Backbone:
């Protein structure tokens, strides 16, 4: 079957009409000269959709962006790393608004057409002189090749920048989708994960873009876990500027599903990159639950395994201690019959009917010692299924996050 889309280079500037920049403005202080402020701009007004953290302690930029994006239109994203502007009171709200206002002034758009994002340390006020100078510098450096710099500018503890872009055909017009993301710690999303910015030159209705984004996030970012912590700043934003010239993609458009599949690919690719780049991790583990009473039950079971500190510790040691996995499934809240459980490490069937099959530990350990492996649990009580992606827990992670 011929692929409906193909990967290309360019990230958020791959689609027509988008420019970006990433600059260093000294938000983190010290001698670090890495870029820490990103600007992404559509040259024409764009339909906009966003998904934000469900954490009740929301950072100021999240609250501002939620208000701005409610109008369904935006043209600019300004984002900084090194400081979350979270738990910063009235000053934090003022600072987020000032970021939007300056970007709007420089780019001749309305302030409500600017979306603001921050990531980094919580509870510290932004060094606003640096930030505002950074916005001015980024505006001067905007380029249709600036996607890579923007991807670097939103990194915090990430080891690698994260970019994906694809091209596909809609109504015989080339359509492009580009995206960047950051995330390595505080990864346990509910609605979104860390920061992700998606651009497309497709013509998409506001409702269609919102539906497509939420579906894409659900099958990608909402399935990953590194450390069981949900950030105050998690944000996913999509901008569609229509410069590809296709007929508007509504939910009834015959090729809407084609666009959805490409968007799903982009977000899932980024989500997996985030897990692989998790803080001090050494394993990438796919957790697949089948045979559940419902998809919701399968999700409960998968998340219980992903959240288990005992399971994560075993992953790190390459210990095939499947009892910890079935224990987690049992307390997950999913409907479980302990006499019907099957469990596999990759394709090695190690548990049948809730009891061991006598597979030699050496054979199981050969799988669980790999950097990438899968756990499959069949509950055998229905047709529900869910797949999640998680990591191990290392001593290095604890050392990295213990503070000074």
Residues:
């Amino acid at each position: 079957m011929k692929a409906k889309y193909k990967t290309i280079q360019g990230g958020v500037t791959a689609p027509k009409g988008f420019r970006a920049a990433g600059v260093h403005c000294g938000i983190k202080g010290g001698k670090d000269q890495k870029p820490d402020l990103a600007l992404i701009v559509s040259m024409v007004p764009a339909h906009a959709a966003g998904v934000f953290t469900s954490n009740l302690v929301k950072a100021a930029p999240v609250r501002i962006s939620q208000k701005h994006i409610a109008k369904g239109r935006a043209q600019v994203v300004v984002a900084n790393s090194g400081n979350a502007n979270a738990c910063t009171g009235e000053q934090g709200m003022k600072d987020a608004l000032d970021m939007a206002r300056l970007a709007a002034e420089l780019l001749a758009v309305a302030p409500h057409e600017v979306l603001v994002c921050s990531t980094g340390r919580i509870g510290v006020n932004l060094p606003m002189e640096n930030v505002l100078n950074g916005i001015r510098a980024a505006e001067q450096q905007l380029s249709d090749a600036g996607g890579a710099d923007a991807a670097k500018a939103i990194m915090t503890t990430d080891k690698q920048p994260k970019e994906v872009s694809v091209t596909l055909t809609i109504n015989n017009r080339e359509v492009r989708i580009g995206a960047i993301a950051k995330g390595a710690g505080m990864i346990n999303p509910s609605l979104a994960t860390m920061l992700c910015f998606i651009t497309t030159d497709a013509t998409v209705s506001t409702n269609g873009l919102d539906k497509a984004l939420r579906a894409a996030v659900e099958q990608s970012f909402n399935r990953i876990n590194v450390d069981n912590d949900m950030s105050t700043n998690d944000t996913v934003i999509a901008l569609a500027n229509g410069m590809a010239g296709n007929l508007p993609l509504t939910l009834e458009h015959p090729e809407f599903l084609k666009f959805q599949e490409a968007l799903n690919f982009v977000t899932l690719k980024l989500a997996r990159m985030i897990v692989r780049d998790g803080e001090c991790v050494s394993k990438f583990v796919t957790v697949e639950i089948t045979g559940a009473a419902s998809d919701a039950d399968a999700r409960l079971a998968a998340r219980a395994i992903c959240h288990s500190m005992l399971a994560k510790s075993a992953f790190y040691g390459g210990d095939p201690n499947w009892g910890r996995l079935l224990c987690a499934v049992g307390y997950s809240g999913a409907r479980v019959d302990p006499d019907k459980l099957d469990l596999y490490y990759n394709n090695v069937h190690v548990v049948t009917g809730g009891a061991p099959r006598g597979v030699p530990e050496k054979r199981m350990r050969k799988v669980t010692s790999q950097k990438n492996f899968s756990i499959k649990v069949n509950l055998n009580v229905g047709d529900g299924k869910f797949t999640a992606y998680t990591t191990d827990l290392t001593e290095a992670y604890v050392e990295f996050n213990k503070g000074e």
Remarks:
- Confidence is low (pLDDT under 50) at residues 189-193.
- Residues 203 and 245 are 7 Å apart (CA to CA).
- The chain has two domains: 5-276, 284-401.
- The domain at 5-276 is CATH 3.60.70.12 (L-amino peptidase D-ALA esterase/amidase).
